[in-house]
Amino acid sequence: MHFSTLLTLATTVTLATAKSYYCLMGQDKTGFIQNAYCCNGYHDMRGNDIAKGGIDCTEMKKDVREICPDGNTPKCCYTIGAQVVCTAEAVVNAD
Fold first, then answer.
1. Would you state the pLDDT for residue 68?
2. What is the pLDDT of residue 18?
3. CA dist., res. 37 & res. 61, Å (int)
4. How far is Cα 66 from Cα 92, in angstroms, rounded to an integer?
5. CA–CA distance, 19 with 94 (Å, rounded to integer)
6. Burial of 67 (0-12, 13-18, 19+ CB in 10 A)
7. CB atoms within 10 A of CB 8
8. Mean pLDDT, rounded, of the chain
9. Tens digit of pLDDT for each residue in 12-57?
10. Cα angle vertex 41, ends 75, 30, to 5°?
């Protein structure tokens, strides 16, 4: 294989690197698996000083962004039924 072909291939692979979110496990002593969400607001959770309840939240599956549409940053949240519970900041990283 020629050097120019290898260089082109390496550049293509580098450009194809996708971004993703990194979320810690639930920080409110639950240890639940969390995913990144953008929420329009938050409310206090009774009996939980760390967690906030998300209001009108959207899970950020493939839409990786550092700022949500409302200007806030994505949060790491888990769900219990219809309730979204957020306990940490989501971190954007490159895979």
1. 95
2. 65
3. 8
4. 7
5. 4
6. exposed
7. 11
8. 85
9. 333 445 689 999 999 999 999 999 999 999 999 999 999 999 999 9
10. 45
- In angstroms, rounded to a whole number, what is the distance separating the alpha carbons of residues 87 and 94? 22
Amino acid, single-letter form, for residue 57: C
Asked if residues 30 and 77 have their Cβ atoms less than 8 Å apart, the reply is no
Instruction: Collapse the DSSP code of 8 into the 3-class scheme (helix H, G, I; strand E, B; otherwise coil) and give the result.
Output: helix
| pLDDT for residue 5 is more than 50 | no
Its pTM surpasses 0.85: no
CA 71, 21, 48, 45 torsion-angle sign: positive
CA dist 42 and 64 (Å) reads: 21
C-alpha–C-alpha distance, residues 36 and 26, integer Å: 12
Cβ neighbours for 77, distance < 8 A, ≥ 6 positions apart? 34, 35, 36, 37, 39, 54, 57, 84, 85, 86, 87
